[in-house]
Design goal:
Radius of gyration: 33 Å
Number of strands: 7
Helix content: 10-25%
Strand content: 15-25%
Number of helices: 5
Shape: elongated
Length: 207
């Protein structure tokens, strides 16, 4: 009896709806046909996302250990790095509101990230100090009017906008209560700048 030859397996459909296998050019690397895979019917993921109109509420950061209103901090970055300031309160944005006071060491009201400061054991008396009116909007910059290119060229050497008279008066009024609660030793401590000399290691210092 003559046995029938085994049937060959059916070849897969090369042009399917999911992928399309096309040979580009004659030969690719290692003598193999160059293959390009393409997909059909898949929408972009970004088109499926729905934009939410609700704004995420910013969670206030927890204060570091030893940070309390009245604590003296050492700034580690910014224009006044190395200066000692008095911590007043934490704002809604999570930043710390600090002051020199300006009459003592020339540091005005500023917002500081608590990661960029060192808390010390020295504290100041804040009785009678009122900083309720100071918030994040207090530090918002005023929108300047748009100028033409010619005006910008002539105004390049002009002086920068300084603090308004209202803020200067408010700064002086709010710092008066803080200055009254400072002793002479604390005032001299706030005036001194923090710096490290040779054979001084920060991890061995006690603030």
């Amino acid at each position: 009896e003559v046995q029938a030859a085994p049937r060959r397996p059916a070849r897969p459909d090369t042009q399917s709806s999911a992928t399309l296998l096309s040979a580009v050019g004659t030969m690719g690397k290692a003598g193999q046909a160059r293959q390009v895979f393409r997909t059909f019917g898949q929408k972009h993921k970004s088109s499926l996302k729905v934009k939410s109109t609700e704004k995420k509420l910013t969670q206030s950061q927890k204060l570091k250990k030893g940070l309390e209103p009245g604590s003296v901090l050492i700034l580690l970055a910014g224009r006044f790095r190395g200066r000692r300031v008095v911590f007043l309160k934490q704002l809604e944005s999570g930043l710390l509101l600090v002051t020199g006071p300006y009459a003592v060491n020339g540091v005005p009201l500023r917002r500081v990230n608590q990661r960029m400061c060192i808390a010390t054991s020295t504290k100041a008396d804040l009785k009678g100090a009122d900083f309720v009116s100071v918030d994040d909007k207090y530090f918002a910059r005023e929108a300047a009017a748009k100028k033409s290119k010619k005006d910008e060229m002539f105004a390049a050497g002009a002086s920068k906008s300084s603090m308004s008279d209202e803020k200067k008066a408010g700064q002086k009024k709010m710092d008066e209560a803080v200055v009254k609660g400072l002793s002479t030793d604390v005032k001299s401590y706030l005036k001194a700048c923090f710096s490290l000399s040779s054979k001084m290691y920060p991890h061995e210092l006690k603030f």
